[in-house]
Amino acid sequence: MLTWHKEIIIPTPIDQVWNLFELDQIQRIMPNVVEHKPVEIKEEVIGSTYEQTYREGKRTETYIVTDIEYENTEQKKHKKVEFTLAKAFKIQTAFTLIKLDDQSTKFIYTGQNEGLNLMGKTFIKLGSKKRNDKVVDEFVELVRSEALKDS
After folding, report:
1. For residue 87, how many C-alpha atoms fall within 13 Å in the half-sphere facing its CB?
2. 0.90 surpassed by pTM
3. Which end of the chain has fewer CB atoms surrounding its CB within 10 Å, N or C?
């Protein structure tokens, strides 16, 4: 299993950063997600599902994303989702925002990628931790830069 945890401070109000995770803004921080549409939206958010299509090069993959944790208070915003990719990987990612003051937010991005079958497990074992760290760093930086554009 591959795991990650990255924290940064973004000099932007918490609501401004949280807005980037809204349905109509998600492609700003996840440009390879070419489609993200609700399948079933639950009032309490947990259990809501979305059909997401991801493109990398010429390859596209469509899967169902499920909200498994959700918190939205003045001081803390948190969302954890999970999905199965290519029947080979179970991926969970969490986005947590903590209000430090009116103009700064701590962004915590965590996740794990678990191989579900021989192909998935082999791919994770052969995959580079350095490459995964680079992807995580690039995502966190994109969230930071997009949040700053709105300030």
Report:
1. 0
2. yes
3. N
Helix, strand, coil percentages in the chain from 3-state DSSP, rounded to 5: 25, 50, 25
Cβ-based neighbour number of residue 50 at 10 Å: 21
Q: Which residues contact 40 (CB under 8 A, 6 or more apart)?
A: 47, 48, 49
Contact 8, 17 (CB under 8 A): no
Which run of H or E residues covers position 36?
strand 33-40
pLDDT tens across 70-110, in order? 999 999 999 999 999 989 999 999 999 999 999 999 999 99
CB 78 within 8 A of CB 71: yes
